[in-house]
Amino acid sequence: MDAKRLLYCIALLAALALPNGVQAEIYVFVDKNGVSHYTNAPTDSRYKKARLEELNTEPGRSVSARETWQRGRRTTPQNPAKYEQHISKAALSHEIDPLLIKAIIRTESNFDPFAVSSKGAQGLMQLMPGTARNMRVRNPFDPAQNISGGARYLRELLDSYNGNLALSLAAYNAGPGNVAKNGPLPKIPETKDYVRKVIHHYRSYQQNAGAPVSLSKNITMGKLVTVN
Questions:
Q1: Residues 35-67: pLDDT tens digits?
Q2: What is the dihedral of CA 42, 48, 51, 57, to 10 degrees?
Q3: What is the reported pTM?
Q4: Which distant-in-sequence residues (6+ apart) come within 8 Å of 119 by Cβ?
Q5: Which of 27, 77, 102, 158 is the most buried (most CB within 10 A)?
Q6: Is residue 108 annotated as part of the catalytic site, yes or no?
Q7: Class of the CATH-defined domain 80-226
Q8: Residue ranges matching CATH 1.10.530.10 in the chain
Q9: What gap in Å lies between CA 99 and CA 188, rounded to an integer?
């Protein structure tokens, strides 16, 4: 990762970290694989403090904390439609309905490419650092890389769970180690709520499209109605 891109990620993360008018303190280090790690509570001497400065994100345009935060809530500076090309490409590559990918992004980050969860999940599809590395995602805040990596991970889960979408989504949220391959959904309230939300958004997108737009292979759609 070049210095300009690294600074770009640092500055935008800092903008997301704190509300208007508060100086962000974000720490970063780049590991041997070129993956950047961010935190506001460093536990390793490799982390170095990064200071938020206004930084160009597009030619002729800059973004600041004031633009990124409004009334204490994180906003999305980009139109979700800007990700359609990346979604379509990932859907075709991994044989997944693009509307399903879109539903996951809406549930995970609400189309905020710089979203970071309290557990450290990053980007549009909220990839954990370890998952991002496994999916060959070098910059989790790059929409194309994040969507490609998230779709690839979802495809692996779908194959692992024999196409059972509910279980695959549960594993995406809670981790495969917490979801039995032939069992019911784990009794984790957050995970059950997550599966419901993704399926709700997925069905909504299908209805708005007028008909299912399916590129998905080996997905057991009947399982969707048994999420309790």
A1: 666 666 677 788 777 644 332 333 333 333 333
A2: -100
A3: 0.66
A4: 128
A5: 158
A6: yes
A7: mainly alpha
A8: 80-226
A9: 25
